[in-house]
Amino acid sequence: MKKLVILSGSGISQESGLKTFRDMGGLWENYDVTEVATPEAWERDPELVLRFYNERRKQLFDAKPNGGHRGIAELEQWFDVHVITQNVDNLHERAGSTKVTHLHGELMKARSTIDSYLIYELEHWQLKLGDLCEKGSQLRPHIVWFGEAVPEIPRAIGIVQQADILVVIGTSLAVYPAASLVNYVKKGTPIFVVDPNRPEVYNENVTYIEKKAEIGVKILKEELEKLN
What we know:
Blueprint (H helix, E strand, L loop, with lengths): L2 E6 L1 H5 L12 E2 L2 E2 L6 H6 L1 H17 L4 H8 L5 E6 L5 H5 L4 E3 L2 E8 L6 E3 L17 E5 L9 H9 L3 E5 L21 E4 L11 E4 L3 H15 L1
Parallel strand pairs: 1-4, 1-9, 4-5, 9-10, 10-11
Antiparallel strand pairs: 2-3, 6-7, 6-8
Helix pairs in contact: 4-7
């Protein structure tokens, strides 16, 4: 089976009704959204930060995977598919994708503030002050905030380097280091970009599908049939 690597961004989740930071117009309840997604914000007002992510989590409970998510999961019938996502939601998994790497963390998980290896699955949308890890420290969202390192990047680079085909879906390729992943494909690797806004990829083997994810993945399947 050929190794198909999918790099997905907020555009695909937006089609399931999830708001992106851009959708919020930069503001959330009169706060700059970047100000509720930084280590400094956590130190200054952890209750506000928890409330922000509780709202995101509550929204996720009501969201469902769309045709784009489901179409990617279905590709596992013909390819060894690995999804690398910039999204913190679990819609890829809920659609049936079995290999998903989250670059920016996971909304449905919390982690210890004193031991980053202590990570817990959340079964509900609310995380509160006073919710503690087994070592007695406050739990925080398992999210990579602005200004923090992206620990999954080395793993993601290794996955992209092994790709026989790379697909970019629903991302502007403007957020680093995630955007740099397209530079790690082997020479000659076919790249498909599914996005109505056509983010530029400087590679001679790029095919652009200028559609939203749900429609674009259907077209992608037809293109991939020619390669398989």
